[in-house]
Structures are given as structure tokens and as C-alpha cells.
Amino acid sequence: MTDHHHSAAGASHGSDEPAMAALLDLDAEVLHTFLSDVTSTLADLTRDEPPRRIVDLGSGTGAGTLALLRRFEDAEATAVDRSPELLDHLLAKARDRGVAGRVRTVQADLDDAWPDLGAVHLVWASVSLHHLADPDRGLRKIFELLRPGGLLAVIEMAGFPRFLPDDIGRGRPGLEARCHAARAEAHAEHLPHLGADWGPRLSRAGFAVEVERPFTIDLRPPLPEPAARYAHASLQRLRSHVAEKLSSDDLATLDHLIDSDGPDSVLRRDDLTVHAERTLWAARRP
Ligand SMILES: C[S@@+](CC[C@H](N)C(=O)[O-])C[C@H]1O[C@@H](n2cnc3c(N)ncnc32)[C@H](O)[C@@H]1O
Q1: Separation of 268 CA from ligand 1 center, angstroms?
Q2: Which of 10, 49, 56, 115 is the most buried (most CB within 10 A)?
Q3: DSSP state of 152
Q4: Whose CA is nearest to atom 14 of ligand 1?
Q5: Ligand 1: distance of its center to the CA of 25 in Å?
């Protein structure tokens, strides 16, 4: 089911949507244990009345939507995103998994007027609230959307995932740390809410925060098969954010690492790790 709400910003947000879709899918695949832990926490919190109507805000390719439908077998989910390409990708995955009948997609820019999403038992917002121009307005809208007693799950990350050994960097170890510092500088301007403390903001919006739980994901070799592709896709995206800020040596090293055919490619290394940090806030509308 597709319900496209067109808005000025509802048009495509760039030509890198296929790369973004691949990265989000790999994120969900490599970090699937984390997703399963989070949905299990939500199942505990909703044991008395399992959610039947779920909304996934900034759903991307549906990592959350699909994990929630697996966990809550009687539920239906509405996935909301401003990208029609990512929503189409989500629907194709839902069809593959035989759950398309339980998913509706709504294209909307959540910085504009919100679509009518009905009354909801569970709202999921994973790594999406920090993209909003005014996340506090978003939290108030979510509060209105939820039925009394309904639950909001916010997942955000302290930083972007890391993969490389510390000693990488031509004559100057610490390439990945320098890349992330450059990215943080770029994001400080464009994404000021990334890494925010959401607890006080949830309280201010009227929610009762029931869980604040940090998760550290540390995968060591031998890594699962998609981890190298996840590292490759992540580092490619990182490059697009920091290329202009890196020294020519650092940029050359990074290019060797993401050159799929090159001898140093992350696709072939045996010394990669995956380190990611996410936090779950689960908050109830009283
Ligand atoms: C980092 S992705 C996270 C996707 C997904 N929740 C996940 O955890 O895999 C952020 C998503 O938020 C969406 N998004 C960003 N700003 C938005 C807005 N103003 N309105 C609706 N969706 C937005 C993007 O299109 C993207 O799919």
C-alpha cells in the first residue's frame, strides 16, 4: 500500500539514494542482534498490551519496520519517509518477506505539515530525529500521535560506526579518527542535533522516560560476510562528507581503502572490526 503525500521537499533528495539504501540495509544486516535486543526490550515494555498500530518515522529502507513486524506478529506498520525511493525499496523487502499486507508507506517531509497517521500504539524513530530541523516540534507531534499509554522508541547514535585499525594512515596513524573529526565539524553546522541527549527533550515534550539504554556493538574478526561491504559503503559515504577537509595523504589512503579492486581494499582485509554505539530511549505518553 502506498500513500504518497507530495510536498515541496518530497521530491528526491539526491542521486545517491541507491547507495544510501544499500548502506541502510547493510547496517540492519550487520547490526541485527542490536535490533533484536531493542525490539525485545519494547516487547517487555508492552507485555500487557502488545502494539497493533506502529509508525516508523524516517523509516529509510525499513530496518525498524521489518524488525517490529517480526517481533509483533499482530501489528501493522506505517513507514514514513521523505524519500520515495527508500520507501519503494522498503515495500519490495516487505513483499520478499511476505509482510507487504501489513505495511503502508507514506511519503512526507516531517519538517512540513504531518500526514494524518491515525492513533498509534508504538512510534519508532531510529537515527532520524536528529535530521529534523526542529526535533522538539517532532516530539510534540509524536506525543499527539500516540494513544495514552503508547510508547515512543528513539534510537540515536553517539557517532558513526568505525572499522579500521588505529595504525592506518600514511606515516601518520589515526586516519579514521581524523575522518570522523572532520565529519563532526561538517555535521555541527548541518546536523546540530546529532548526539543530543534526548531524555530531557522527551520529558519536556510530556513523555515519561522508562528506559535509557546505551548499546555498544563490537564485532571482531572473523566478521560476518556483509561486514566488509558495510565498511566499504560507510567509508565511501564518509569520504563524500570529508574529502575537502582531509590532507592529500589521508585522502589517498582513504581512496586505496575504498578502491574495490585495489590490494588494500577493505573488501579484502582481515583486520577490520565493527564498532558502533547507539542509545535507546523508550518513553511513554502518560
Ligand atoms: C539515517 S536514516 C535512518 C533510516 C532508518 N530509520 C534506519 O534506522 O535504518 C534517516 C532517514 O530519515 C529520513 N529523513 C530525514 N529527514 C526527514 C524528514 N524531514 N522527513 C522525513 N524523513 C526524513 C531520511 O530519508 C532517511 O531515510
Answers
A1: 30
A2: 56
A3: E
A4: 58
A5: 13
Within 8 A by CB and 6+ apart from 149, the residues are 49, 284, 285, 286
Q: Which pLDDT tens digit goes with each residue over 94-129?
A: 999 999 999 999 999 999 999 999 999 999 999 999
Could you tell me the distance, in angstroms and rounded to a whole number, from the CA of residue 6 to the centre of ligand 1?
Answer: 16
Distance from C-alpha of 265 to C-alpha of 62, rounded to nearest angstrom: 29
Question: Would you give the DSSP letter of residue 246?
Answer: S
Residue 195 has pLDDT above 90, yes or no: no
Per DSSP, 221 falls in state: S
Protein residues with CB under 6 Å of any ligand 1 atom:
24, 27-28, 58-60, 63-64, 81-83, 86, 109-111, 126-128, 131-132
Residue 205: exposure state from Cβ atoms within 10 A (0-12, 13-18, ≥19): buried
- Each domain of the chain, given as residue ranges in start order, spans 2-159+194-220+273-284, 170-190+222-270
Ligand 1 centre to CA of 57 (Å) is: 7
Residue with the smallest CA separation from ligand 1 atom 12 is: 58
List the residue whose alpha carbon is closest to atom 11 of ligand 1: 58
Q: Which residues contact 21 (CB under 8 A, 6 or more apart)?
A: 60, 61, 85, 86, 89
Distances (CA, A) of 110 to 8, 10, 46, 82, 189: 12, 10, 26, 7, 20
Per-residue pLDDT tens digits for 45-86: 999 999 999 999 999 999 999 999 999 999 999 999 999 999
Domain 2-159+194-220+273-284 adopts which CATH fold? Rossmann fold (3.40.50)
| In the block, residue with C-alpha cell 517481533 | 71
Distance 181 CA to ligand 1 centre (A): 23
Atom 16 (ligand 1): residue with closest C-alpha? Answer: 131
